[in-house]
Design goal:
Blueprint (H helix, E strand, L loop, with lengths): L8 H9 L2 H30 L94 E3 L6 E3 L14 H13 L4 H12 L5 H14 L1 H13 L4 E10 L2 E9 L4 E6 L4 H7 L8 E4 L12 E4 L1 H15 L2 H20 L8 H21 L20 H11 L1 H4 L1 H4 L8 H17 L5 H19 L4 H9 L10 H7 L1
Parallel strand pairs: 3-6, 6-7
Antiparallel strand pairs: 1-2, 3-4, 4-5
């Protein structure tokens, strides 16, 4: 913004001598300057007041000085495992792999020899540890025989997995992918870990090749996940986050349910990306998202909004502007959430009277909010600007909650719809962890490989599978797929 030039004393006197009209013009211009500066100061104060508890900013941006309060309420339970939790304490096994007997040589009291005295009992202690691990080399020998009749040489076939004179096996390659893709260990450190664990040097290229192999083998499952998400009537979760691919800003999109995860990277964030990915345009269930405007361009979708976002925005309005209606709306949304949770699983929906009461209270809070934020008359003359006129943040949030009332309260009308979009945000967190640990993607192919493998891994974990097991299955040519995806795999075969 250009520096604002204010008149000096002599200029003011000159304008004063020009008469009343000139003074009115001067005061009007100064009022507009004060308004503009006030808006700038308020915007800067709003920016400083925002943190992870009252906006969409990540917790890492809070710094060490800020201590934002959590939006979660205390449950009243003690920390640690709750009653009925199975626990995971070490338990003795019936038959140990190795037994070491520690013998008594002499009496502790009189030092008499006890070498020939049989033991009357034993006190047992068990140590759980790993045996020494090293890479084991298996040599495959294919017989070559000459036919005594026609003298033709015939060689036996090698197993399908043994395709090179020298190669790594499926278990070791699964661990390469496991460290690099599941735990985001950079290539150089993955190679270092394998060398330290197994005394076997592995090149970074070998790790990359193993990842590409897994991505190719799980491609049918990846496409089956996409097809299932396109046609499911169950509520789905959608979100996106930015990331660097070849030093440029790309967007990583996620579509997911409690049992499925699908990632895809695209250079764009909005409708162009949604069309290219091809899930949201075909989706006919209830889509939970964060109210990004591109989602609302699709009318065949039943929209539901993330109330975790609403709680943060309402918290900001209450903390920054001390508007009580925002705190009342926070309490109401939490009360509805508690009522829905209390009604499950015995009921499929709240009673009509209960729903009507919550809706009336919702509308009353919005009415109080609009009364506290009336539309201010514009100062004349109004400079013409493109787009909507700028509004107070509280007024913007009120308009949104009024326009999207049905989508905000979707969790109240349909118990299958969750209160927030945390499922998508939890799945997207893996993308952010990848970038924090390993940095950006050096190629589009690397980003595509990551999305494919992470979709497969996340889906397998949601269905109770161990990551190393499903990676080994993929390398063996039989990737894991949840039972409900099997018909799709069969039809595509």
């Amino acid at each position: 913004m250009e520096p604002i030039k204010t008149p000096d004393e002599e200029e003011i006197r000159t304008i004063y001598r020009q008469g009343e009209a000139a003074m009115v013009t001067l005061v009007g211009s100064l009022i507009r300057v004060v308004q503009a500066l006030s808006e700038q100061v308020q915007a800067l104060e709003d920016q400083l007041a925002k943190n992870s508890s009252n906006s969409g900013k990540p917790p890492s941006s809070d710094g060490l000085k800020k201590k934002p309060k959590s939006l979660r309420h205390k449950s009243g339970k003690k920390s640690g495992g709750q009653p009925g939790h199975p626990g995971s304490t070490l338990q003795m096994v019936a038959h140990a792999a190795h037994v070491e007997t520690h013998r008594v040589r002499r009496c502790r009291h009189c030092q008499a020899s006890l070498e020939e005295v049989p033991a009357q009992d034993y006190e047992k202690r068990q140590v759980f540890d790993l045996p020494p691990v090293q890479v084991e080399v298996t040599e495959h020998q294919a017989e070559i025989k000459e036919c005594p009749i026609c003298h033709t040489l015939t060689q036996a076939d090698f197993p399908a997995a043994v395709s090179q004179p020298v190669q790594y096996g499926e278990r070791l390659k699964a661990q390469m992918v496991y460290f690099h893709q599941q735990h985001f260990v950079p290539l150089e450190r993955t190679a270092e870990i394998l060398a330290d664990l197994y005394d076997q040097p592995v090149s970074e290229g070998t790790i990359v090749e193993a990842c590409h192999t897994v991505a190719q083998r799980v491609q049918p499952v990846y496409q089956a996940i996409k097809a299932e998400l396109q046609q499911t009537e169950e509520p789905g979760h959608f979100d996106e986050t930015g990331g660097r691919v070849e030093k440029a800003l790309w967007w990583f999109h996620v579509a997911c349910t409690a049992l499925l995860t699908y990632y895809e990277a695209h250079a764009k964030r909005g409708k162009q990306a949604l069309e290219a990915i091809g899930i949201f345009p075909h989706f006919h269930g209830t889509a939970l998202h964060d109210a990004y405007r591109s989602y609302f361009q699709y009318q065949n979708v039943r929209h539901a909004l993330c109330n975790a976002h609403h709680l943060r925005e309402l918290t900001f309005i209450f903390e920054q502007y001390q508007q009580s209606w925002a705190n009342e709306m926070i309490d109401l949304l939490r009360e509805i959430k508690t009522a829905v949770e209390a009604a499950q699983p015995d009921q499929e929906h709240l009673s009509p009277a209960k729903i009507a009461d919550f809706e009336a209270r919702y509308d009353a809070i919005l009415t109080a909010g609009f009364q506290a934020n009336p539309v201010a008359p514009p100062v004349e003359p109004i400079p013409k600007k493109r787009g909507k006129p700028k509004q107070h943040p509280a007024k913007n949030l009120l308009d949104h909650l009024q326009l999207r009332k049905r989508e905000t309260l979707a969790f109240m009308y349909d118990f299958k719809v969750l209160f927030d979009n945390n499922q998508a945000e939890r799945d997207l967190r893996m993308i952010k962890l990848k970038q924090k640990v390993s940095g950006c993607f050096r190629s589009q192919e690397g980003a595509k490989t990551f999305c494919t493998i992470r979709s497969y891994i996340s889906t397998a974990r949601k269905n109770g599978q161990r990551v190393l097991d499903v990676l080994q299955l993929a390398l063996s040519g039989s990737p894991y797929a949840p039972p409900f995806l099997q018909p799709r795999l069969s039809s595509n075969a």
